[in-house]
């Protein structure tokens, strides 16, 4: 069991395994509209953080800038994103999510919820309560991770 070095009894190795195991299941849920992972990741990043410069988006997605530029061009062609001038720097461009892109993200979120509901119903009330109590900490952990990546 891997423990944190900050005086906590949180087993980081156990947490990592649990998140990885859940993610393996979660990202493979059947979906209404099949899109490549990188497409969904870019759309989700834009939902979470708002418009971004190509350089920021490439860094966030951990892909090369030429690869991201090609992807954004495809997404723009499909009507999922659009490029607009950065109002604070006329030389720069921001990638914005379109309403269609937002709808795809929302539909995927709702679809995943429909798949999780029957599984959650099989948990004990105590297990559901434990997950509910852990949500604020997991949200904060994700926020800290995003901040560290900036």
Automatic annotation (TrEMBL):
Coiled coil: none
GO molecular function, one term: DNA-binding transcription factor activity
Record domain HTH marR-type: where: 1-140
Sorted UniProt keywords: DNA-binding
Keyword Phosphoprotein: no
Keyword DNA-binding: yes
A matching Pfam family: MarR
Protein name (database record): DNA-binding transcriptional regulator, MarR family
Organism: Streptomyces qinglanensis
